[in-house]
Structure formats: structure tokens, C-alpha cells
Predict the 3D structure of the following.
Amino acid sequence: MILSDLLNDLKKLLPNGVNLLAVSKGHPSKSIRLLVDHGQLEYGESRLQEALPKTIDLSDMDDIRWHFIGRLQANKVRKVVQIFDFIHSVDSFSIAERIARISREENRSPKVMLQVKFFEDPTKGGFSVSELQEGWQHLTELSNLNIIGLMTILPIGLDLDVRRKLFKDCRTFADELGLKDCSMGMSGDWQEAVDAGSTWIRVGSLLFGDRVK
Ligand SMILES: *Cc1c(COP(=O)(O)O)cnc(C)c1O
């Protein structure tokens, strides 16, 4: 199937209020350009080194909004704040503080989501629920940190009912904190994420096919 048909089919299935983030990591600028021509403006990248040349290639398309979804290293924060409109993967207090400080210096205010683990997974970053509850007051007091929601990534291989429960946990926690957005759901689990109240699904391979490394 061609890319633009896949895009339209997927979009038709999404309820109002659910945004499609096209995860373009591992795919060239020309694939992005094709989707921009079909109205898709939100793109997710997880590595700054890979994203930078694409943002330069596509700088003529100034409606594109770039979303950073990968693990954010301290020394990359300034560039990410300069280029990206959203950061989905804020996974520690120190990175949050750094984003706040640098956003102030750069006069930028990227929309930020806090990555939370609802399932113990040592391979992934993210706040635990209790850690975030304890530090929440502190985070809300940081100026220039525009927190809009929570983000979660589920480990692979979980049963459907477990996935549904964990996505619901994320939605419930976001509601408790008064946050509108939940960035959850990828190619393999976007449907249950949408059912549970996702507002951003992050879809790569379903849309673009297998990634070239
Ligand atoms: C790569 C990636 C995705 C997209 O994964 P697919 O399974 O290809 O849809 C979504 N979120 C994050 C954080 C990713 O790194």
C-alpha cells in the first residue's frame, strides 16, 4: 500500500482529540516530505544526530512540528530545545530542570511530557509513579517548563488485558495531575492506547514500513 493511503486509513480510525505522531526515525526526509504533502505535520525523532540533517533538509516546510521522543542526554538539551516543539521523553528531575533553564535562556517553551513507567522495566528510563507524586510540586514550580502530559512505553510481550490496564493507569494518573495529554501507543498497541484515552499515538513502522538502520 502506498504511504499516503496508509496515512489516510489510519487517520480515519482515530477519534477526535487523538493526534497522530509519525515516527520518522530510520526513514529519509523524502518520506516525510511525501506525508507533509498529504497534511501530516507532526514528526517524531529519537536521536538528535539523525534528526538534525532532516530538519535542515525540510526547513522549507515550516509547518512541520518536530517531537523529540528518545532518551535525552544533558549535553543535547540546548539543541533539542532550539529545534523541537515537543519533548515526549522527559525522564528525570535533572533533565526537567535543565530543559526549564535552557528554555528560559533560549526564549523557547517546548511542550513537555513526563515519561512514566507503570511496569518495572530496567531497560527503560522514566519516573515511577511515587517519584513523580513526590516531586510534582517542584516540577510545577519550574518556570518555562510547559508540562502538558505523560508519556509511557510498554515493554513488549504483555497480554492485551495487561496493556489495557497499564494504559488506563497512565490516563488516570494524568487526570489526577490535571494533565490533558497522554502520549501512548505505537504500531503494535495503538488501538488499546486509544481506547484507554491516548491523545498522541506514536506510529513508525506501521506507516513507513521497516526502519533502515
Ligand atoms: C521508535 C519509537 C516509536 C515507534 O515505534 P513503531 O513500533 O515503529 O511504531 C514510538 N515511540 C518511541 C519512543 C520510539 O522510540
About this structure: The mean pLDDT is 95. Strands lie at 19-23, 42-45, 65-68, 86-90, 111-115, 146-151, 181-183, 200-203. The CA atoms of residues 110 and 122 lie 28 Å apart.
